[in-house]
Amino acid sequence: MHLKRDGARLRNLDMQFPILGLHHVTATVDDAQADVDFSVDALGLRLVKKTVNFDNHGVYHFYYGDEQGKPGTIWTTFPYKGRGVPLGTKGAGQVTVTSFSVPAGSLDSWKSRFRERGLTVTDAPPRFGEESIVVTDPSGLAIELIANNQDRRTPWKTSGIDNASAVRGIHSVTLTIRDPAPTVALMQDLLGFEVVNDMDGRLRVAVNGDEPGKRIDIVHSLDAGAARNGVGTVHHVAMAITDADEQLRLREELVRRGMQVTPVMDRQYFKSIYFREPGGVLFEVATMQPGFAVDEPVAELGRGLKLPPWEEPNRSEIEAVLPKISV
To answer: I need a surface site. Which of 192, 228, 282, 320 has the fewest CB within 10 A?
Structure first.
């Protein structure tokens, strides 16, 4: 199925909202230490915040990214080992692949790095003029590295990975859905995305420019099996919006269209709303501010356990049940 490019459609620009690009991607994982080792040691990301799941304070919430954890570089995880969460199933209505952006020519060094750590890595079929590899993380997540020469973002500097190879941030995510038309219509008409490329069974949309950190791929098949959330699956993808006022305006429009959308939720480092797009994927729209330096200096990001104010009275209890980790 090929959908018309955005430029061929009449659109109500007054109803669009200033989505700037991707904000973060959040997944459910298994063991906390294995997750830190993969994200920090294997991928070379910085642990920028160590906090707890605001809905379950006995579970960590890790945020990884660049030096400051800028929106568009952030990968976040909930490690649920020992909490009775079953393995998930990747399928329709879910983000099935999370892709990171790396420099062109670096994939061979990444293959060697992953294999030295006992990880399974394979070449992905070329698409849209980009080469990529897929590595399976310890929880079974599909993590892709896409090589390109478009990304101008400054990477986090860490030992063992030189600047010519280091991850620049999120490149894109891949949604798996059965019928792409309603999803694309919502993303074009309301969120400002445009169809920038397509091929059989896959299309790519982008917002605020066709470049890494602003893209979403949509894989579609009427025969795609249903997803089930759980360990080893992505929970949601978040998009960045300019500020809280625009976020409220978007929420009002979603409600006006009859969509189920959460109230604005204070996540300490940004404010969020959540809703499911027509294909079933959970979308979050998050503000750019205040950022991760609101409760610790940039130089010390990720070192201490940071709790929201309402959980501080429970710090001793929380620390007693969280597993010990080292970075």
So the answer is: 320
